[in-house]
Amino acid sequence: MATYKVEDDLIRKVWFLFLERCQILTFEKGLKLDRGAKMKNIDFREVRIDECGKMKDIDPQHYIKNAWRLVDGKRQLVEIDYHEKSWPDGFERYYNELIEIIKADGVAFGAFDSEEKLLGIATLKKQHFGKSAKYVLLDSMFVTYEKRGLGLGKALFNLCVEKSRDWNVDKIYICAGSAEDTIAFYKGIGCVDALEINEKLYTDDPRDMQLEYIV
Each residue of 131-154: pLDDT tens digit? Predict the structure, then answer.
C-alpha cells in the first residue's frame, strides 16, 4: 500500500506541474497575441522634416526609481526616486536636433498610429567617428508613456540597425540614460559597454552609460 501511495503522490505532483506549465504557456501566448494586436495598426517609417512638430504627440515622462552611479569607483544601482515629467533638457532641444539630423542626411524613424499620431521616435546621426571601429550615434529614442512595453522601442532600434548597415558602419554608439530600466532595455536587445569611449559625448553627461551595438 505504501508503494501505491508514493506513486500516487508522484503522479499527482507531475500532473499539477503539467497544469501549471500549461497555464504559464497560455498566459505567455496571450501576452504575445495582445502585444501583436496592439502593434498591428502601427506604421513604422521615416519621419519627414515637415512632421517634426509631431514630437509633441509623445508623452516622455519617466519615473526613475533606481539609476546606475559610480560609487567608490564601482558602478552600482542607487535609489534616486525621481519623476521626469517632461522632456529632459526641454522639448525645443530635441525638436531642433531632429530637424538638424534630417537636414544633415541622418534619419529619424517614427512609430505612427492609424490617426498619424507619433507614438515613438529614434534618431540616428550619419556622421562617422571612432578609431577602433566606424561608429554612428543613436542620438535619441523615446516611446510615449502609454505605449511602452509593447515592443515599439525594439522595432525602432532595429530600423536604426538596418540603416547603419546600409551606411556600412560597424557599430551604433549609445549614450544611454542611467535609469535601471533604460539600461535593462538596451542590454536586453544586445547592447554592451562601449569598447571605445567618445570623450566629448562622455563629458556632456558623465552619468550616462556609454554603450555600443555591433551591426
Answer: 999 999 999 999 999 999 999 999
Q: Where are the alpha helices (DSSP H) in 110-198?
A: 152-166, 180-188
The topology under which CATH files domain 41-214 is Aminopeptidase (3.40.630)
Q: Give me the amino acid identity at 181.
A: D
pTM: 0.82
Q: Within 13 Å and on the Cβ side, how many CA atoms surround 34?
A: 9
Contacts of 161 (CB under 8 A, 6+ apart): 172, 213, 215
User: How confident is the model over 83-130, as pLDDT tens digits?
Assistant: 999 999 999 999 999 999 999 999 999 999 999 999 999 999 999 999
DSSP 60-109: --EEEEEEEEEETTEEEEEEEEEEE-S-TT-HHHHHHHHHHHHHTT-EEE
Q: Is 126 exposed, middle or buried (0-12, 13-18, 19+ CB in 10 A)?
A: middle
128 CB neighbour count, 10 Å cutoff = 14
Judge contact between 119 and 147, C-beta under 8 A. yes
